[in-house]
User: Which sequence fits this backbone?
């Protein structure tokens, strides 16, 4: 309303100026006065035409160049403008209005230098481009969004402002152009100090992703083409005067469950949760395919369970979930974790990724540890956010055989993150 009032005032001023020049030419006469009047007449006609120019009839479109974007990457966006009539325009300001979710940056592993002060990563993203259309009917403008954060980013509007070269007429229109940008979490390079596997006989287990498989030899047999040279048992070969190779016990992988704590709590650290999502996704990608069965559970307001066993399309479902997941729900993680795990049999190696360990979490994990084959807890939090009572809970869990990893900014800033599972 205020903008329309100003526009009306300006057009009244233009009419007043034209009337003043005409009156001056009529009363003064002569070449100069009429020259001024006729010189201003084209400007007057242009201003009147611009006043009635239908800006809202422009056709706007927005195009994201990349279909798949990960956090920390850059995204190229093109705004296209189509005009039906080549009306001359001096300059136009095009502004793509960014959603609130884009008002922060992701610097990849360098992001976690600010794990104790996540507010330092907040930015004000504004995009305004000045273009000079003149008579062009098709206009394109490409820009780039750098250090894009994970999540769902709804783009809704594009604001266009235009004016004449004298600054007398200003017009503005907001185009509704709703599109959604999904940014998947990036992955981190992990060094898992342990491989989750077990043998058919006995209690011995092997935990090493980095080491060569060391299955238990249970006998010998004659050499078969294709057997590895390192499998040859030279003692038995010498005794029987024939090539003999070791026969290994059949190894079976252990079912693995990865649990993400997506419950909201007091002292919530947004950046720590982003790290938790990245680490969770990285663990799933590394373990998936190496265990006989891999399940993922996100515990929040609405629990999400994804079984990755023999279904590669479920990795896409998992990625889409981790793209949009945010801490929510008023229920405590401990109770929901207890209820969820009671529905599963106890043969799982359970990896829990969380940003907080409190008394109820400690109690729930302690109860479930006796039912599970092994429990690994990964706590991700800024060193300044971890309280002394949490360290006490960690010591108690470790005394019960629970493996606890504490990842702070000191570990997360490195390209490779070490995670113990033994």
Assistant:
């Amino acid at each position: 309303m205020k903008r329309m009032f100003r526009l009306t005032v300006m057009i009244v001023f233009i009419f007043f100026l034209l009337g003043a020049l005409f009156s001056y030419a009529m009363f003064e006469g002569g070449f100069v006065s009429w020259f001024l009047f006729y010189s201003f007449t084209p400007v007057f006609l242009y201003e009147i035409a611009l006043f009635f120019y239908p800006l809202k009839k422009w056709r706007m479109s927005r195009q994201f160049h990349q279909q798949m974007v990960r956090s920390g990457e850059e995204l190229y966006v093109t705004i296209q403008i189509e005009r039906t009539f080549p009306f001359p325009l001096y300059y136009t300001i095009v502004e793509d209005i960014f959603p609130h979710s884009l008002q922060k940056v992701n610097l990849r592993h360098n992001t976690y230098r600010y794990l104790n002060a996540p507010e330092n990563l907040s930015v004000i993203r504004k995009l305004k481009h000045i273009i000079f259309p003149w008579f062009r009917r098709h206009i394109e403008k490409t820009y780039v969004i750098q250090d894009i954060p994970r999540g769902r980013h709804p783009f809704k509007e594009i604001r266009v402002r235009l004016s004449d070269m004298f600054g007398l007429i200003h017009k503005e229109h907001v185009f509704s152009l709703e599109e959604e940008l999904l940014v998947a979490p990036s992955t981190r390079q992990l060094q898992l100090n342990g491989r989750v596997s077990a043998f058919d006989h006995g209690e011995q287990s092997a935990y090493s992703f980095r080491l060569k498989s060391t299955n238990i030899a249970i006998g010998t047999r004659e050499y078969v083409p294709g057997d590895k040279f390192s499998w040859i048992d030279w003692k038995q070969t010498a005794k029987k005067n024939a090539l003999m190779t070791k026969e290994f016990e059949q190894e079976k992988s252990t079912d693995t469950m990865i649990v993400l704590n997506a419950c909201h709590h007091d002292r919530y650290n947004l950046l720590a949760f982003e790290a938790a999502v990245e680490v969770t996704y990285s663990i799933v990608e590394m373990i998936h395919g190496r265990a006989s069965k891999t399940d993922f559970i996100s515990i929040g307001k609405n629990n999400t369970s994804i079984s990755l066993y023999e279904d590669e399309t479920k990795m896409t479902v998992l990625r889409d979930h981790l793209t949009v997941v945010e801490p929510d729900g008023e229920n405590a993680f401990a109770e929901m974790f207890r209820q969820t795990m009671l529905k599963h049999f106890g043969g799982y190696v359970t990896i829990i990724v969380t940003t907080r360990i409190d008394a109820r979490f400690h109690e729930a994990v302690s109860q479930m540890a006796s039912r599970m084959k092994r429990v690994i807890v990964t706590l991700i939090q800024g060193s300044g956010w971890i309280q002394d009572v949490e360290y006490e809970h960690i010591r108690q869990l470790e005394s019960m055989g629970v493996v606890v990893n504490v990842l702070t900014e000191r570990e997360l800033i490195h390209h490779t993150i070490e995670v113990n599972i033994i």
In short: The longest helix spans residues 2-28. The chain is about 30% helix and 30% strand. Residues 85 and 213 are 72 Å apart (CA to CA). The domain at 254-420 is CATH 3.40.50.410 (Rossmann fold).
